Amino acid sequence: MKGNLIDLAEQGQFNVIVHGCNCFHTMGAGIAKEIATRYPPAYVADCILTKNGDETKLGKYTWQEVHAYTGRSFIVVNAYTQYKYGRGGPHVDYDAIKSAFNMIAKQFGGSTIGYPKIGAGFGGGDWNKIQTIINTELQGVVHHLVTLN
User: Fold this and answer.
1) Secondary structure of 71-115 in HEC code, one letter for each residue
2) What domains does the chain contain, in order, with CATH numbers?
3) For residue range 72-98, what is the model confidence (pLDDT) as tens digits?
4) Is the pTM of this model over 0.90?
């Protein structure tokens, strides 16, 4: 699907959106920055519910229901798919993606889920490998990759 993941959720295309996070409460670039800016409660969930720099967060997630100006609500899932961030990657952890999406399927399996190319941008991962993991873990769940126009 083409478009802006958050805009599409605000329009009712998704009940749940998932984005990849590091373990340091840093949402300073990409879709994470947009989520933190537009929906601060999703960022607050990361900061309040988890310890900064805690490597045991890998493969887990936090989530927060947010309310859009359109009157719709949806859930933002902060999936901990990489420990570090910044230069010197790749930082993505394929096992963490597998674990997080396995748990997401169990908790949100009845929802329509949207996500960007988690781990393939700033995380430096191989999208073909990541996509295979996500498709396997979300088998039977309605889900869509969203790429910018």
Assistant:
1) CCEEEEEEEECECCCCCCCCCECHHHHHHHHHHHHHHHCCCEEEE
2) 5-145 (3.40.220.10)
3) 999 999 999 999 888 777 999 999 999
4) yes
